[in-house]
Amino acid sequence: MHAYRSQTCAELNASNVGDNIRLSGWVHRVRDHGGVLFIDLRDHYGITQLICDPDSAAFAEVEKVRAEWVIRIDGEVKARAPELVNTKIPTGEIEVFIRDIEVLGRVNGDLPLQVFGEQEYPEETRLRYRYLDLRREKMQRNMILRSDVVASIRQRMWAQDFKEFQTPIITASSPEGARDFLVPSRLHPGKFYALPQAPQQFKQLLMVSGFDKYFQIAPCFRDEDPRADRSPTDFYQLDLEMSFVEQQDVFDTIQPVLTGIFEEFGGGKSVDQEWPQISYKDAALWYGSDKPDLRNPIKMQIVSEHFEGSGFAIFAKLLEQEGTQIRAIPAPTGGSRKFCDRMNAFAQKEGLPGMGYIFWRDQGEGMEAAGPLAKNIGPERTEAIRQQLGLGVGDAAFFLGGKPKTFESVAGRARNVIGEELGLTEKDRFAFAWIVDFPIYEKDEETGKIDFEHNPFSMPQGGMEALNGDPLNVLGYQYDLACNGYELVSGAIRNHRPEIMFKAFEIAGYGEEEVRKRFGGMVNAFQYGAPPHGGCAAGIDRIVMLLAEESNIREVILFPMNQRAEDLMMNAPSDPTSDQLMELGLRVIPQD
User: What is the distance between the terminal CA atoms of the chain, rounded to a whole angstrom?
Assistant: First the structure.
């Protein structure tokens, strides 16, 4: 017999009754029923119930074991009484009578967190003892899901004739929207490598090298502020690039991959088959976000005309300023003063003075518009708003005003809260939408300087001709894929022509010499026959987070950093030794 096990803790069933077997695993739980000991033995695959009575030669040793000890047992498989069968586990028809036991690993002291049960523990404790946290059923399930998702992605990419290549981890600094992690060079004192924020330049160089379809499950490193859906240090993405493609070709390639993944692992939730393409401008207007949750049917609308010259002085005066507007958030079924006051309090918590509102109620012989705004602007304007928004009795609308960038994000969050609280958001659905037509440039309101708003390597729509006009009107062949309020995919058709690239950077204040210095490898390559190419990257961590129905990305990462970008388990970041600093020619300057 094998030194540790003849079966796993998920394999035994009624067909094994009478067999002498060997199992190894962790003691999940110990129960003493009047001198008869019951142990739930757990391994990666499942749980088997063990039993030991005082007649067993192993009883004295079995009495000593505690939760999370690692043991090996020999015993006989016996059938449970019909009334004791546990239908919740595969091994529920049997139990194993222990004849012999060997302790393979003890727990020294008290457990900092229990594996058995669903207790909640502070995140600091969970991350410091992650190896214990990962033993818990939910975490095992999440990590197996992640492994299965990655395996399925690879199969689906291979089926589309993509080739998997690995790009460098130690490379040159490249702007990807975040700070680099720098790596000092021992052989070249004073110079630094960088960990790649993404394989952006390398995957484009692969297309110049003549490879037609590339992908990899790529690690990416960005020094970013953490969020619930973003790691502060590193993450993984499905990275892909293709030659001789247009925007729609990229969409047609990634859609069946993600549709298949969400159908395979989505737990029976519906997966949208039609993915609308929404302009960045419309997404901001309708949803207040470039990653809208389309499970929520609410669309915001501009209602400025109804407040111009109205009795509501705050909005009327606001509209006299250039670039301002009033936007309405319809709230079907939200027509009660209690709900409206609650949403007004939400806006105040978000840093706004509040949100104006109107709600419509039944007055026996007709409908009445209520709320401060209705009284100030009068029945004619109020009725025009109701008709524009398509609302009726029992409904409400909320209003925000100013320059869109000052209130858009709050309006978007308010839309989400309204959808959730009124039960309008469909929970059993994965709703996808492509966000397209991103502007390439933006103007700094204070300095008037033009700079890149989005990916500087995107091909401008209209090519060189578009760059000769107003930069703020230039759109890029850049796109994001939103799903249930999260950005899952980002990509672009690349700017593969050096003369257009130099012009694009010149508009943002970067001369040709600087572009060649910062992106010399790619610029040089483009001068030797670069094909039109494009691609995208899908966030593995966020995909798994959605499939696992988690709201925090750390729940689907094996060994994540905490909110302060610290690894409490491995004690990172740590202080370098004096010898390490001397070897690299570095000195640490203390920060106040």
Answer: 64
Among candidates 521, 531, 520, which has minimal Cα distance to 497? 531
Question: Cβ atoms within 10 A of the Cβ of 414, count?
Answer: 24
Is 4 in contact with 22 (CB distance < 8 Å)? Answer: yes
Confidence class for position 453, pLDDT limits 50, 70, 90: confident
Q: Residue 518: CB partners within 8 Å, gap ≥ 6?
A: 175
- Max Cα distance, the chain (Å): 93
- The partner residues of 217 in beta bridges, in order of sequence, read 238
The encoded tokens of residue 554 equal 């750390």
Q: Check: CB of residue 522 under 8 Å from CB of residue 201.
A: yes
Q: What is the Cβ-side half-sphere exposure of residue 435, based on CA atoms within 13 angstroms?
A: 29
Q: Measure the CA angle with vertex 295, ends 290 and 298; round to 5°.
A: 75
Contact 38, 77 (CB under 8 A): no
- 275 pLDDT higher than 70: yes
Spell out a b/e string for 252-276, using b for 16 or more CB atoms within 10 Å of the CB, else e. ebbbebbbbbbeebbeebebbeebe
Distance CA 568, CA 124 (A): 8
Q: Alpha-carbon distance 375 to 449, whole Å?
A: 44
d(C-alpha 409, C-alpha 551), whole Å: 20
CA 332 to chain centre: 29
Burial (CB < 10 A; 0-12, 13-18, 19+), residue 231, is: buried
- DSSP element (H, E) containing 74: strand 70-79
Pairing of strands 367-370, 432-436: unpaired
Tokens matching residue 533: 């190419």
The token pair that represents 289 in the structure block: 């976000």
Alpha-carbon distances, residue 128 vs 122, 124, 125, 227, 567 (angstroms): 10, 6, 5, 19, 8
Q: What pLDDT is stored for residue 447 in this prediction?
A: 85
CA-CA distance, 531 to 70, in Å (whole number)?
A: 58
Instruction: Say how far apart CA 534 and CA 240 lie, in whole Å.
Output: 9
Q: Is 100 helix (H, G, I), strand (E, B) or coil?
A: strand
Q: Given a cut of 80, is residue 592 above it in pLDDT? A: no
Among residues 254, 139, 43, the alpha carbon closest in space to that of 544 is found at 139
Residue 190: both structure tokens together: 């004073």
Say how many C-beta atoms besides its own lie within 10 A of residue 22's C-beta.
Answer: 18
The DSSP-derived string for 173-242 is ---SSSBPPEEE-SSSTT-EEE--SSSHHHHHHHHHTT-SEEEEEEEEE-B---BTTB-SSEEEEEEEEE
Is pTM, for the whole model, over 0.90? yes
Contact by Cβ (8 Å): 308, 319: yes
Would you state the structure tokens that stand for residue 372, as one six-digit string? Answer: 């401060």
- Reported as a single tens digit per residue, the pLDDT across 509-536 is 989 998 888 888 888 999 999 999 999 9
Q: Where are the beta strands (DSSP E) in 444-517?
A: 450-452, 478-483, 486-493
DSSP string, 354-393: --EEEEEEE-SSSEEEESHHHHHHHHHHHHHHHHHHT--T
Distances (CA, A) of 294 to 195, 329, 415, 430: 35, 15, 11, 9
Burial of 571 (0-12, 13-18, 19+ CB in 10 A): exposed
| Antiparallel, parallel or unpaired: β 192-194 and 70-79 | unpaired
